[in-house]
Amino acid sequence: MHQSHPQTTNAAVQQLHDSVLAFLQENVPGAVISSHIDYDFPLFILEKSHTIDALAALKSAQSMEFSFLTTMCGIHYPENKGAEFALMYQLHNMPLNKRIRIKTFMASNDLTMPTVTHIWRASNWMEREAFDFYGFRFSGHPDLRRILNMDEMTYHPLRKEYPLEDAGRHDKEDKYFGR
Amino acid sequence: MAKHSHIGQAIAPATDVVDEKDYTILNLGPTHPATHGIFQNVLKMDGEIIRHAEPTIGYIHRAFEKLGEHRPYAQIAPITDRLNYCSSPINNMGWHMTVEKLIGCEVPKRAQYLRVIIMELARLTDHIVCDTVIAVDTGAMTGFLYLFQWREKIYEIYEEVCGARLTTNIGRIGGMERDFNETAWRKLHAFMKEFPKALEEFDRLVTRNRIFIDRTVGAGAITAERALEYGFTGPNLRAAGVDYDVRVMNPYSSYEDFQFTIPVGTKGDTYDRYMVRMMEMWESYRIIEQAIAKMPDGPIAANVPEFFLPPKELVYSQMEALIYHFKIVMGETDLPKGEVYHSVEGGNGELGFYLISDGGRTPYRLHFRRPCFIYYQAYPEMIVNGMLSDAILTLSSMNVIAGELDA
Amino acid sequence: MSINVNIREEFKPEGLEGAGFFATSLDKVVGLARANSLWPLPFATSCCGIEFMATMASHYDLARFGSERLSFSPRQADLLMVMGTISKKMGPILRQVYEQMAEPKWVLSMGACASTGGIFDTYSVLQGIDRIIPVDVYIPGCPPRPEQVLDGILKIQELARNEGVQRRKSPEYKAMLDQYGLQ
């Protein structure tokens, strides 16, 4: 028989948000730019230079112990001038069933970020995917190269300026479809 | 330790240093009968022992995440089908639940129970594929041929509900598209009556089979700590000893109403992965039994006419319903702004959907947390210093589905 | 609803029959032999591969049409069944597998993705395998039902039966291969 874990209520999520915010403000001062709750996830927007310290602290500290990296991905906000790209990390404290989301923004001319592969091994391929899709450069990554697309590809396809369709296709003219 | 692991040590004991340049390079894949899916592994072999493995994936990269930014929400459901295509309904339901979370819609109880039945049937199909294929890779074709007959029976149930066998696109935002009709109930009851015998037969063929145990015990073992570091979830993590199941930790779609256990292994080797899936099939069977017994009456969809097609009588008689129908079919419905993450327990682990909506007709960003992609990173570590035949078994027991790996 | 086909009548080649002998043209005999012993190479990449597994399994049983032995080695296969999405990364590999097959060889494109790219009109997906290799039969569907796959195989059998022994050496065939840049 399993022990059923309690459903997270709004109060529990608020408490999680407050405790993590207090922890970050105390241990990594200057890291948190802003924070709020999205549906059932506390979201913390961190300063780019402090992100790696914050993530390491969130994993190792006894009171936090976010030892499982659920996922991470890149996001492109082209209309956000000066902070066009964001990296999102989703952390999970499995034994206590606590989940938070960390986001950090960066400008399009400065897409470098220290790697977290020494903190969570699972991030190895996730960072390669972020590099493949958006062009983030993770310094210290053991093997940063394209993972899903062809190695010869010259651009980073998930950026919003690139189209979805294959550029070489000539039988889907817009004029036939009223576009 | 496996009974035969000493053989590996006798061939290349730790004190003997074989020169690196004497290693043979073997290319396993991308097209290979035993890699069920297209991924490549370049192996450096010292005789029969693998010393180094270099995986390459992306041979079926179909750009789901980019597609997600260009398709309206209802059109993304058929795309999610193609993630883990052995258990497509689970992917579909996960997507529908993500959108329902975004719009704040409460799905009626009956629809939730119907969804549970469909999702557990899907889990059965996924585990049948994985377990029979492990047996095929050890040389036992019989189990595969016997149990695939039962997958056909499950496909027939899907067909009654949604019309398709494999890529089902089952369910809608807000509930189910149609209730189970009489034929579906009849087929489901017939399946429930006969399936235990078939599964027991497969169990007797394989589980205590001398050859199978000798082949699989100790092959591709991974410890629980290592598995957690690599982001394992699902049966592979449970085989290593951690009882993490999204259905229990973050219950969705009324899973908290059902009694089921989480089978857990000890060593995280191929035999444990096989056994965990076998036990999970029994648990899924029990969940379906309970869902049928406790099925409540009620509507099969929530009252969200902006997302759920109104009934045809209303479309032909009321202006509002006609406009909703038009907007849904043309994909012109706007959704609220927000950022949401929802995960379901897929056949391979925590399948997560991270959705950012900017209020438009298509998602702003859609990211899939694909369990196969994350745990396949550990594959080189699991096969190094083992034999090539163990590497093949490890791969099939991890149940790597290429669609979910590359997305 | 089943169609009754008397196989002996339907596929019997024309020829001169007598007590203990049957004389017909070599083309027809070779065609009959080839059609009923096609060894497929299942180039299964995605969901269509699972439907192919269902076709191979006991319910729909592909083996009764002569395709008992699936060959994963191109050198020993007759029929290349491309099942599933082919991405641009996979294209060269598909072409290499096709080139490694010995004549006579047929190509069956199963599913919408292999035929035209399917629902994946994206930058990474090859919009149809006929951009890189010649295809004999296309099976539409996403994924096609096993019955459709069997229908496709029967059409390949029809092609094989009626081909003739000289086709693969003919200048028209060579011209078609040149179009693809194949030898």
Blueprint (SSEs and pairs):
The complex is a heterotrimer of chains A (179), B (407) and C (183).
Chain A: H1 10-27, E1 32-38, E2 41-46, H2 51-60, E3 68-76, E4 85-93, E5 98-106, E6 112-114, H3 123-134, E7 137-139
Parallel strand pairs in A: 2-5, 6-7
Antiparallel strand pairs in A: 1-2, 3-4, 4-5
Chain B: H1 5-11, E1 24-28, E2 40-46, E3 49-56, H2 64-68, H3 73-81, H4 88-103, H5 109-137, H6 141-162, H7 182-206, H8 210-216, H9 224-229, H10 235-240, H11 246-249, H12 270-293, H13 312-317, H14 319-330, E4 337-346, E5 349-358, E6 365-369, H15 371-375, H16 379-383, H17 388-397, H18 402-406
Helix pairs in contact in B: 3-4, 4-5, 5-6, 5-12, 5-17, 6-7
Chain C: H1 7-10, E1 16-18, E2 21-23, H2 26-35, E3 40-44, H3 47-56, E4 79-83, H4 91-100, E5 106-110, H5 112-116, E6 137-139, H6 146-161, H7 171-180
Parallel strand pairs in C: 3-4, 4-5, 5-6
Antiparallel strand pairs in C: 1-2
Compact summary:
Chain A is an alpha/beta fold and 179 residues long. Chain A contains three helices and seven strands, in the order H-E-E-H-E-E-E-E-H-E.
The string of secondary-structure elements of chain B, in order, is HEEEHHHHHHHHHHHHHEEEHHHH
Mean pLDDT of chain B: 90
Overall strand count of chain C: 6
SSE sequence of chain C, one letter per element: HEEHEHEHEHEHH
Residue-averaged pLDDT of chain C, rounded?
90
How much strand of chain B?
A: 5-15%
Count helical runs of chain B.
18
Helix content of chain B: 40-55%
Describe the structure.
The complex is a heterotrimer of chains A (179), B (407) and C (183). Chain A is 22% helix and 26% strand. Chain A is built from 3 helices and 7 strands, in the order αββαββββαβ. With 407 residues, chain B is mainly alpha-helical. Chain B has a single domain, classed as Cytochrome-c3 Hydrogenase, chain B. Helices cover 50% and strands 11% of the residues of chain B. In chain B, α5 runs antiparallel to α17. The two termini of chain B are 36 Å apart. Chain C is 36% helix and 13% strand. In chain C, the strands form 2 sheets. In chain C, strands 3-4-5-6 form a 4-stranded parallel sheet. The radius of gyration of chain C is 17 Å and the shape is globular. In chain C, β5, α5 and β6 form a beta-alpha-beta unit. Classes of the chains: A alpha/beta (179), B mainly alpha (407), C alpha/beta (183). The interface between B and C is medium-sized, with 35 and 29 residues.
